Amino acid sequence: MRVAIADDSALFREGLAMLLASSGAEVVAQAATADELVSGLDRSRPDAVIMDIRMPPTYTDEGLVAAERIRARHRGVAVLVLSTYAETPYALRLLGGGGGGLGYLLKDRVDDVAALQDALRRVVEGRLVLDEEIVAGLLAHRRHADELARLTPRERSVLGHMAEGRSNQGIGSRLHLAPKTVENHIAGVFAKLGMPASGDDNRRVLAVLAWLRATPPEPRPVGGRGAAAATAAGPDHRGDASPFG
Amino acid sequence: MSACAARHRTWCLAIGGTAAAVAAAACQWPAFGPSPVPAAVNVSVTVAFVLTAALLNGEESLGSVTGALVLGGLLWALSFTSAWDGGPSALIATFSYAHFWVCVGWGVLRYPTGRLQNNTERVLLGAAVLFVPVANMAQLGIARPEWLGYTHPDGLWWYGSPVDHGMYDILTIGLDTITVALAAMFLVVIRHRLRRYSELDRRIFRPVAFALLFAFLIAAAVNTVSYIPTSPHIGAEFTLVSLTLLLIPVAFAVAVLRRTFVRARIAQQLASLPSPPTVGAVRDALRIALHDDSAEILLWLPDDGHHADGDGIARQPPHPPDADLIMEVRTAAGAPLALITAAPAMRRNQDLVVAAVQACVLALENARLHATVAAQLDSVRASRARLVEASLHERRRLERDLHDGAQQRLLALATRLGLARTKATDPDTISAIEAAREDLRHALADLRSLARGIHPAVLSQGGLRPALEVVTAALPVEVELDVCAQRFDAVLEAGAYYTICEALANTVKHAGATRATVSVRQMGDAVRIDVIDDGKGGATAAEGGGLAGLVDRVRALGGALVIASPSGGGTRLTANIPC
């Protein structure tokens, strides 16, 4: 697999390149800026690019802008964005543009070659990949606490894996479930949450994300169990997302 | 002498009045038999002139008018010595009657400045002094006493040699015409003066001028009928003149009263000043009180080292100093406070300006104090705004340093650990790497949390809406966001962000709320932020508390925070921040 990297931190770039090389990928280009990466794509012709979001010159959203440009001009190139922060608005901006071959991961994932390889493979296959931290944050949101409380723990983890962009097969192998069981769980989730069922994995990701971000259709009486579940899910992720601590 | 007169005013009035009355009565004693009422009116004219002079004595603005009034009163009494009908009575009466008018005209022209205004006035007065008495005395010399109306010419002292009666009549018509012309010129001069005067002077001078003009017109009219009183029978025409003359002291009294009103107006204007007074308001009060639209207050600002006018604009005091009336005002402690300038015409009403200025001192001191405090407040606000901005820059710099430095180094370390993990085969090594990796994940999470707390990158990059989406997603309270996507100034966005975060932190910690709503909207030239929860309410901005900190934070941005938190009724924080 041919991979191009853009990150303004030379140290990180080198480390990532070494890691990718060791896992059998061919690092065909390294760039310190998004522009440098995009302009070299015709020459390097990678299967996937790995980019930071904050890069020179403005250190704001260069990575996202570059991803849009790559999607527009180099349709065959998959884009995996690695971000220092797990920011839901950015993830949605990246993935929500439609199509596949896009991924948004926390930079921390580089300590796990297998996970990185897996994500790269999936984006190159044209899937959407979303970091588990973001999915966990969405699932922990109090907004859907009542509806999510109606799911079994197993259904909740299936929902999470769907949101991360995994296929039925991927979910099955992760949870050590037979494909048929996974299908049943997915059908249960769709039925209980009233989501439109979709066979296409990428559409499924967007549907799940849209559902998670939407305000519940009608207010329901607060159930004791639902509140407990939400509170239990909350603290795990607050450390990262809250500015209060 | 005037000081002494002022101290024993009552005595002066009593003695002066009595003496005048006795003298006037003696002058026309024989007239009391045949015409008691006209004689009494004449006495009252003399007494009124003398008493008015005594009353006005000490009013420096009246100049030498008081002398003219006393002299005029006595001359009027002497004009009626003709009642004695013998000896020098005709000479004295003619001399006095003629000089009476000159004296009164001279006195009025010298009012209110104490001197004549220009050469026209000097020529006019000189002509009157030369012509009226000389003409009248000459008229005696070319006439027989009978022609003038004396019925018992035998005992009268007389002089000259009479001319032909026809000739006398022609000369008399000529003299009368010149007298009327002089009176008319007098009218023109007075009119010219009234035009030139400031509004204040006009108000003061007008009653006197009108009274005198009226008296002149009556006298000129009477002059065409009979020249001077010639017998103990005082004609109705002279009674009319006497009654008219009584208007003159009344007019002077009105003039003095009007000046007093001006002083009262100053006090009234200053009493109606706004609180705290502004220099502009004091100046406007001064202008109204003095009827002088050019009056200006130049407030001395010791901190700035220059003067500023009523509109707060820096101004140099006018040079040369004689261009305007300039008065220096000092504080009670004697420090320079202000310069007050007024139209040059106000110079003759300097006493009024002084009174106004003295009344202004306190208001001006107050105004300057307020202006100083306001300026200091402005500078404090400006420095606070600079501090807020500096603190934002510092936070962003810190976050960037963390991001570019420690975070990237740790992430690079993560890649190396990942690499080491793929290379490792020994179970002990693998478990050691796994442990290190776990520690590193915690370190990265901690660092991320720290960096985000210092300044969330998403705020700079995406604005308030995404930043608030991120922060509210993780709260254990359902937060509805109604935040406009518009971008604002970075300082405002950061301030609004931390304000909302702190408000939500309070909601989570203390309110026991289940829902909260955050709305951020631009309303005109301000951003309005509402953070509403359905908690137990009862929140107050206690000293040192979280809400007090919020109030400070919003104030530092030049905005205002309102907290409505009825017990049991939820809490609503509303912040308006100018943008």
UniProtKB/TrEMBL annotation, chain A:
Residues 235-245 have a biased composition (Basic and acidic residues). The modification 4-aspartylphosphate is found at D52. InterPro entries: CheY-like_superfamily, NreC/VraR/RcsB-like_REC, Sig_transdc_resp-reg_C-effctor, Sig_transdc_resp-reg_receiver, Tscrpt_reg_LuxR_C, WalR-like, WH-like_DNA-bd_sf. One of its GO terms (biological process) is phosphorelay signal transduction system. It holds the Pfam family GerE. Residues 2-122 form the Response regulatory domain. CDD domains: LuxR_C_like, REC_NarL-like. GO terms for molecular function: DNA binding. Residues 144-214 form the HTH luxR-type domain. Keywords: DNA-binding, Phosphoprotein, Transcription, Transcription regulation. Residues 217-245 are annotated as: Disordered. PANTHER family: TRANSCRIPTIONAL REGULATORY PROTEIN NARL-RELATED, TWO-COMPONENT RESPONSE REGULATOR. This is Two component transcriptional regulator, LuxR family. It comes from Frankia canadensis.
